[in-house]
Protein 1
Amino acid sequence: MGRHTTPDASQHLLLAHFDAGTAGRATHNSVITTNASRTLTTQSLEVSIARGKVQLSHSLAIATMTARVTKIPKPAEADPAPRFATAKAPAAKTIGQLQKISAGCRACDLWKNATQTVFGEGPSSAKVMFVGEQPGDQEDRAGHPFVGPAGKLFDRALEEAGIDRDEVYVTNVVKHFKWVGERGKRRIHKKPGSIEIQACRPWIEAEVRIVQPQVLVCLGATAAQALLGKTFRVNTQRGQLVDSELASYATATVHPSSILRAPDDAARQAQMEAFIKDLKKIAKLVHSSQGS
Ligand code: SF4
């Protein structure tokens, strides 16, 4: 995003942020300040750039102005490129190596407020890989995935479905805990953003490369949309098999934490039963593919 000012302060003191590379529309959410007293957003403005001039046309015809444009240097932006993870993850040959290397990852800012990297766990020979969103409060402290309340519920559901947790690989798309504020002693989880998910992606890709699961199961919308596509909707597509380069079978179901958030016991019970049903399908899939 470019940043431009006009020296014509008496008439149009203008501070505009917009894409400078091409004439045309300013980017969504750009801010334009005129006469230091009016701020217009580019949702209602069209901006064109030609011959060193910027033309701003208000769609409601409230303001039209032309001003000289002087470029000022582009402000430094945080580099979202996951260079550390991109550089280091492909080199690892074992999950142990990945765990060790990822402990020093600084590819996004999440490490700053987290206790430690919480990497995936389970046998490298696992047929099934479960992928959640990110470690929670207890996982962050313990350094292990799915050991908090949602993890305990997950264990119960796996057992009911006839899946041995010791035989599956369990991980998250983001390896550091993101949180905002505290409630009592518990820190409140915050959903990771797309930059963080993207920065962390080399780690999950490396886990998949090493484990080569037959079945990849995303737990919740964040993991599903990160790995199965942005248009995936867990509410309507849970349990469906989708094509994926990551595994022979790829699917998604809810995150166990969503069951804990059910409004009452009856709803929680119904959601737990639906979750177990999804897991039973996965168990059946693994057994049938082993038999074939
Ligand atoms: S969240 Fe992922 S990418 Fe960000 S610092 Fe942690 S391990 Fe690295």
Protein 2
Amino acid sequence: MANNQLCKLCGLLTPVTNNGVCESCTEEYAIIYNFIKNKPTATILEISTATKISLKKIN
Ligand SMILES: [Zn+2]
């Protein structure tokens, strides 16, 4: 019952969640979300440096 689709973020053909994003990107998104929650003034560059997630994905 795998629902393989292109992930909206990384573009891999992979099982995705309801919002069209794969599991690993969902995890990264959660990390970014938490970071922004703690530091709303952070720039994209700061977020990328702190989370080691590429600028492309955050954007
Ligand atoms: Zn992905």
